[in-house]
Design brief:
globular; single chain; alpha/beta; 15 helices
Length: 552
């Protein structure tokens, strides 16, 4: 019989359940919420200036984390160092002109910040100029041969500006079936993919139309995330193969643009959802945009800490979270311009330390445990992508792990939501840990938001490593779904990627306490078992993992 909700708090202190051949913990150990509170408050204080890569805030963060891990007795995890260099380029756009469209029935101009944002991936160009570039609407900007879908079919966009819709063509489908998994966003729906494909097609500029529902956030998030210093992975060619300019435009401005070409945006959006859609040139309309760049190359850093295993130290379990946030950003009405990132992701960063502390207290496991705090998540998973290409410990010898991003401070949830539920055999480990709390795992209520592709576990999955990523559901013990949805909506609207994501001493930590115990139980079981959980048969990452484990 399922445990009553009233008993959940008492159950949280119980030891880990036995999974496969894993021995239970010798004593009841739970990660410390007091440690979490101390570190979240510290990391999200104004003294850390929003923890942007390449700033004094990064230096403070690195010093704090390495000191905390050293104090616990962990070992530097990257060839004797606590840190792994991640080569980045900081690009700060200035003197940004309006994005103008001429040649139509009426000229259209979008102002930087309020109506459009723009930047570049090119890391050596101090000046970007797109002048009189022909404009083409390419629907969702997808080229997916395996799905028989190509929005660029028969099209040459070299030197042109492409206008793109966010998400997948079937995101409004009620179910999870369709050419792009229905409501469940695929990687083709992510803005990162849109820009990648536009560059492959040779576009001079790529502009995404912002629409709150398919984007999963309002314009305020776009504005705060895309203005100010941006960070880009460095490369040998300076990313010269990328589009000169990339960015977003407000939907009403896009509607005016289409009207200037004698087109109706709503009708074109509907047409783009249908198989066989053909790109539509905005006849006669040309785009112009220019801006200067301040460029600064620097090495940001991932933090790598190791808790060695006692019998199989060359096998590893990975815990990951990103330490970075946005630094100084678009100011709130009260003048506050520090995006403190308390929930996102001082909570996950603090959880790494709390989990390390609990594992030290419980005693070493058979396998080694790796605690990885990565940089550049807010800039496109840059730190985890670098670690994926250059792991401190081979993925073939890493059994799997958990990723933690923006833990809920809304209170104890009745169940947890697994991002990507059903993809790997790690689900069974979580199910057993949940059973001890009288909770169960559920699927994502909003798969159209594409969370699977928005956090660092995705960087590791691409290299075949099974990773769990879960969070408390919106169905809260206190207040039910109504309270949970209200809290989520309030955070997204008023705090997410904004200056008001700050530490609050009145937060309800019961949900974090429960979820921390799950991370601990799952990780502890993985570090004790001899099993090697894999992706399920047919999953997109299964073949990569099989080849890696086979030494191929």
């Amino acid at each position: 019989m399922r445990t009553s909700l009233a008993a959940i708090a008492a159950i949280l202190a119980l030891s880990s359940p036995v999974i496969a051949d894993a021995a239970p913990a010798k004593s009841a150990v739970a990660p410390s919420v007091d440690t979490m509170k101390r570190l979240v408050k510290d990391l999200s204080s104004d003294a850390y200036e929003g923890r942007a890569p390449g700033t004094a805030g990064e230096e403070k963060t690195l010093a704090l984390l390495s000191a905390e891990f050293a104090k616990l007795g962990l070992k530097p995890g990257n060839k004797g160092s606590w840190f792994q260099d991640v080569p980045l380029v900081e690009i700060t756009a200035k003197n940004v002109s309006p994005l103008t469209f001429t040649g139509g029935k009426a000229d259209v101009s979008a102002a930087y910040g309020a109506e459009m944002v723009a930047g570049t991936y090119r890391t050596t160009q101090q000046h970007i100029a797109v002048k009189d570039s022909p404009v083409v609407f390419v629907g969702y900007g997808i080229n997916a041969p395996e799905k028989g879908w190509n929005d660029y079919a028969g099209l040459d966009v070299k030197g042109k500006t492409v206008v793109i819709l966010v998400n997948d063509p079937d995101y409004e489908t009620k179910g999870l079936t369709g050419p792009f998994n229905g409501r469940a966003m695929t990687y083709y729906g992510r803005w990162t993919y849109k820009f990648e494909e536009a560059a492959r097609q040779g576009a001079a500029a790529a502009i995404i139309v912002h629409d709150t529902v398919p984007a999963a956030y309002g314009w305020n998030v776009v504005q705060s995330s895309w203005t100010g210093a941006q960070h880009v992975a460095d490369s040998a060619n300076g990313n010269a193969d990328q589009s000169a300019a990339i960015g977003w435009i407000q939907k009403d401005k896009a509607a005016a643009l289409f009207a200037s070409a004698g087109l109706d945006l709503t009708a074109q959006m509907a047409a783009a959802k249908k198989p066989g859609f053909k790109a539509v040139p905005l006849t006669g309309v040309k785009a112009s945009l220019s801006f200067d760049n301040d460029l600064r190359k620097h090495n940001s850093k991932n933090v790598v800490a190791l808790l060695p295993g006692k019998t199989r130290p060359d096998e590893y379990v990975l815990y990951s979270a990103h330490w970075d946030h946005l630094g100084h950003c678009e100011a709130a009405p009260d003048g506050d311009d520090i995006c403190n990132g308390a929930v996102d992701n001082a909570t996950g960063t603090a959880a790494l330390v709390a989990l390390a502390q609990a594992n030290v207290k419980a005693g070493p496991t058979d396998r080694s445990q790796v605690f990885l705090a990565v940089t550049g998540e807010e800039s496109g998973l840059l730190g985890s992508a670098y670690y994926g290409k250059n792991p401190a410990f081979p993925f073939a010898k890493t059994v799997g792990g958990v990723n933690m991003d923006a833990l809920s401070v809304a209170g104890l949830a009745k169940n947890v939501v697994v991002i990507g539920k059903g993809k790997s055999q790690l689900d069974a480990y979580l199910d057993r840990a949940l059973a001890a709390q009288g909770r169960v795992a559920t699927t994502e209520p909003t798969p159209e938001k594409g969370y699977y592709y928005r956090s660092d576990h995705f960087s590791f999955a691409k290299y075949g490593l099974p990773m769990l990523y879960f969070e408390g559901s919106e169905d809260l013990v206190k207040g039910g779904t109504a309270a949970g949805m209200a809290a989520a909506e309030d955070y997204t609207e008023h705090r997410y990627h904004g200056p008001k994501d700050e530490y609050d001493p009145n937060w309800d930590w019961t949900g974090i306490s429960a979820d921390l115990k799950l991370y601990y139980d799952v990780g502890r079981a993985l570090a004790t078992t001899t099993d090697w959980p894999n992706w399920v048969q047919g999953d997109e990452f299964r073949a990569i993992r099989d080849k890696d484990r086979a030494g191929k």
